[in-house]
Amino acid sequence: MSYDPGALHAALAAAVGEDSALIADLRVAFMESAARQIDLLGRARCDANWELAAWRLKGLAASFGLTGLMTLADEAAQAAPGDPTVLRRLRAALAGLEQS
Fold this sequence. Notes:
Helix content: over 70%
Shape: elongated
Strand content: under 5%
Oligomer: single chain
């Protein structure tokens, strides 16, 4: 699955126009929130905490139209808590978004 880092910028620009300072602030807030949810997934030891973090990540991704990340978060919600493959894929997706 490929990730389009430009999609995040496009979603932010569509929401706030071309205010580069506001886009930068919202981007930082998005990245911090996504990283927080992925960290919570990594620390989850029960189904409820795992699913909650996955659903929050999916909702965050949906807010910005990041369908690839939404799909991964949905897959995470269906996986077992602590699934290393899912966590690795989510971290890679977030790293891809950071590069833009």
